[in-house]
């Protein structure tokens, strides 16, 4: 905003403008920085507000651990946040939405665990995303009552009649350099992302719903932040409509958030990424408003931090994740996995039946990592986690596949039929056209999340078995 300098001598105005332009040029790299440019804490004497943001975990509490180089996890996140807190105790931690990925009892336990982890890290607010809504209003209401994190949504109406404790915005006070700043935090979810109509709820057009809220907040706050659970194009539109928003945290289905930072007029837009792989860290050097009609004068540095191996796992969150695994075991979720007939209408027979006729191949398999795949889960204490077990046994999601190690020990590990398919017909007929394997078979489990360094030709050499000699001398 433009301030009134009419009583200041012209020479001082010229000097001030020169200094302002010089500082602006120095900080231009900071607008979109991935640890580029200078730290505004050092280049400016203005107070600095630090905002840390995450979102779209989509059910990922931690990397599966099946390979090196995986990013993310709440345990690494807390270690990073603890490091950032050593520089500033008054971090503002924000969650953009979509803690769960699917629906079901395991996702409910995940969401409870995720919110408890966010609480341990002192998050201020969680914006409601469409996958949060998919968990059901009653369950969300329960979570909103037991969580110490504010649930917010500025464009979902009809919530007042339920036990769902959601606010249209929150105002966070931060004291820095003996000055108290008030930060207004709003949140929206794009109506385009809501696939199923939810009774008594209306998801409004964000442009319409934000207008009265921003009008109310403008003279009460020094900084306005929007958590925009929407695709970048929609967030840009909101920025164009409401230049009073200093910061929009956005991005839906964004894999590389550092590539999407941008500035629209006076509004900075930063992206969060997916599955908890990254943490956004924003430093805002802020000049307080002199009147309610002023805009803030500020400089912003945006940093995207990958949660890689340089961050150790926090013991507090590791303990919480251990409790999560124990709950999966206690509730016997492995026995509740949805099962169906295999599309081929054939059945799995198990590793032992394969060994009867293919003994040399079976012995070779026993020396590969596929054979010990289930034991890796036992060692990691994840053997009761249905999402993990599915890629470490034969046919978990089918009636004839793995149930438990006691009932179906022959289905442990990534066995013959994990790659070649159900072998019941081959067992009965010794058909020669059984079991062709392609890269698509492997990529079901060796996907970018579980096996980011997967190369078919390289990995194939680790497990391919020798050819068998033909029987009968022909």
From TrEMBL:
Signal peptide: none
One term of GO molecular function: hydrolase activity
Cytochrome c-552/4 domain boundaries: 354-421
One Pfam match: Cytochrome_C554
GO biological process, one term: nucleotide catabolic process
InterPro entries membership: 5_nucleotidase/apyrase (IPR006179), Cyt_c-552/4 (IPR023155), Metallo-depent_PP-like (IPR029052), Multihaem_cyt_sf (IPR036280)
Annotated GO CC locations: outer membrane-bounded periplasmic space
Top-level division of the source organism's lineage: Bacteria
Protein name: 5'-nucleotidase/2',3'-cyclic phosphodiesterase and related esterases
């Amino acid at each position: 905003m433009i301030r009134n300098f009419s009583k200041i001598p012209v020479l001082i105005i010229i000097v001030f403008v020169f200094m302002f332009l010089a500082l602006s040029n120095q900080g231009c790299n900071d607008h979109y920085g991935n640890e580029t440019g200078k730290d505004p804490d050092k280049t400016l004497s203005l107070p600095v507000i630090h905002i840390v943001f995450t979102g779209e975990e989509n059910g990922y509490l931690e990397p599966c651990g099946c390979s090196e180089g995986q990013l993310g996890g709440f345990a690494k996140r807390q270690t990073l946040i603890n490091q950032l807190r050593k520089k500033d105790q008054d971090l503002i931690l924000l969650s953009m939405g979509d803690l769960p990925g699917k629906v079901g009892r395991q996702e409910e336990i995940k969401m409870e665990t995720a919110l408890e982890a966010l609480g341990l890290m002192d998050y201020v607010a969680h914006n409601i995303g469409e996958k949060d809504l998919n968990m059901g209003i009653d369950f969300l209401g329960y979570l909103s009552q037991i969580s110490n994190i504010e649930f917010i949504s500025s464009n979902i109406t009809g919530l007042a009649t339920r036990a769902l404790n959601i606010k249209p915005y929150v105002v966070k006070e931060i004291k820095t350099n003996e000055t108290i700043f008030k930060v207004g935090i709003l949140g929206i979810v794009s109506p385009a992302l809501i696939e199923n109509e939810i009774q008594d709820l209306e998801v409004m057009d964000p442009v319409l719903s934000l207008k009265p809220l921003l009008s109310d907040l403008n003279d009460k706050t020094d900084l306005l932040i929007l958590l925009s659970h929407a695709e970048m194009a929609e967030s840009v539109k909101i920025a164009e409509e409401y230049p009073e928003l200093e910061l929009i945290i956005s991005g839906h289905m964004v894999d590389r958030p550092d590539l999407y930072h941008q500035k629209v007029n006076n509004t900075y837009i930063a992206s969060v990424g997916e599955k908890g792989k990254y943490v956004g860290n924003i430093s805002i050097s802020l000049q307080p408003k002199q009147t309610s009609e002023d805009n803030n004068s500020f400089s912003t540095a945006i940093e995207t931090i990958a949660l890689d191996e340089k961050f150790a796992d926090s013991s507090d969150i590791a303990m919480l994740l251990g409790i999560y695994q124990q709950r999966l075991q206690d509730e016997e979720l492995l026995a509740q996995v949805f099962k169906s007939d295999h599309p081929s209408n054939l059945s799995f027979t198990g590793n032992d039946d394969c060994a009867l006729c293919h003994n040399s191949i079976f012995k070779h398999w026993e020396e590969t990592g596929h054979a010990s795949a289930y034991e890796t889960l036992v060692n990691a204490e994840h053997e009761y986690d249905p999402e993990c077990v599915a890629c470490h046994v034969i046919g978990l999601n089918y009636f004839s596949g793995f149930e438990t190690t006691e009932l179906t020990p022959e289905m442990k590990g990534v066995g013959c039929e994990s790659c070649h398919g159900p072998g019941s017909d081959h067992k009965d007929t010794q058909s020669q056209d059984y079991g062709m394997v392609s890269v698509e078979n492997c990529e079901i489990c060796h996907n970018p999340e579980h096996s980011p360094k997967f190369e078919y030709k390289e990995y194939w050499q680790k497990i391919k078995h020798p050819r068998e000699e033909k029987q009968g001398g022909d």
